[in-house]
Design brief:
mainly alpha; 8 helices; about 0% strand
Length: about 190
C-alpha cells in the first residue's frame, strides 16, 4: 500500500502554498483611512477655491484612487453619492457631477487589471483619457441641457486632475504599514 506524503515526510500540501507576493495582501488600506480621506477631501471640495475653473477635481481623483486600490469599499455607488453631493453643493443641474464621477469610476474599474501592472507614473498616461472623456460627456450634456456652451475651460481641470494621479499614491506610501496582526512595527 503506497504511503501518502505528509509534512513530516517532506511532502507538499496545498495548505503550505504561499502567494508569490504576499505583500499585496498584507497592505490593504484600513476602512478608516479610505472613508476618512474621502470625507476630508469632500469637505475641502466644499470650499470656494473649487469654483476657479482650472482647479483639479481632487474629490474625483481620490474617488478613482480608492476605486483602484479598494474596489470592495469604493465603487460606482460611492461615486454616484459623492457626485450628487457635489451637484447639491453647486446648486446646478442635478446629476452632472454624479454622471462624471460614475463614468470615471467605471473607466477605472474596467482598466483596473491593466493598471495594477504599472507604477503610478505610467498609470497617469492611461487614466488621463478617463478623466477627459468623463468630464467631456458631463460638460456636453450640461451645455445641451442648459442651452449655453461654457467653452473648453473644463478641459484644463480634467488635464490637471489626470496629471495629479501619482499624488495619492505617493501620499499613501508615506503611511506606516503593519504586517499581519501581530503588532509588528512600521515597515
Amino acid at each position: 500500500m503506497p504511503s501518502t506524503p505528509n509534512k513530516r515526510q517532506g511532502g507538499s500540501s496545498l495548505m503550505a502554498l504561499q502567494p508569490v507576493d504576499a505583500a499585496a495582501f498584507q497592505n490593504a488600506a484600513p476602512g478608516w483611512l479610505v472613508w476618512g480621506s474621502l470625507i476630508l477631501v469632500w469637505m475641502a471640495s466644499l470650499l470656494p477655491w473649487r469654483l476657479w475653473q482650472p482647479v483639479p477635481d481632487v474629490l474625483l481623483l481620490m474617488l478613482l484612487y480608492w476605486c483602484l486600490r479598494a474596489p470592495a469599499r469604493v465603487g460606482l455607488t460611492t461615486a454616484f453619492v459623492f457626485g450628487l453631493l457635489m451637484d447639491v453643493q453647486d446648486a446646478g443641474l442635478l446629476g452632472l457631477h454624479a454622471l462624471c464621477y460614475v463614468l470615471a469610476a467605471y473607466g477605472i474599474l474596467r482598466l483596473s487589471h491593466r493598471l495594477r501592472h504599472f507604477n503610478a507614473w505610467l498609470q497617469t498616461l492611461q487614466v488621463l483619457p478617463v478623466f477627459v472623456v468623463s468630464c467631456m460627456v458631463s460638460s456636453l450634456l450640461g451645455a445641451w441641457l442648459s442651452g449655453a456652451w461654457e467653452g473648453w475651460s473644463w478641459l484644463w481641470s480634467a488635464l490637471f486632475t489626470g496629471i495629479l494621479w501619482p499624488l495619492p499614491d505617493v501620499l499613501m506610501s508615506l503611511r506606516p504599514r503593519r504586517l499581519g496582526g501581530d503588532g509588528a512595527g512600521p515597515v
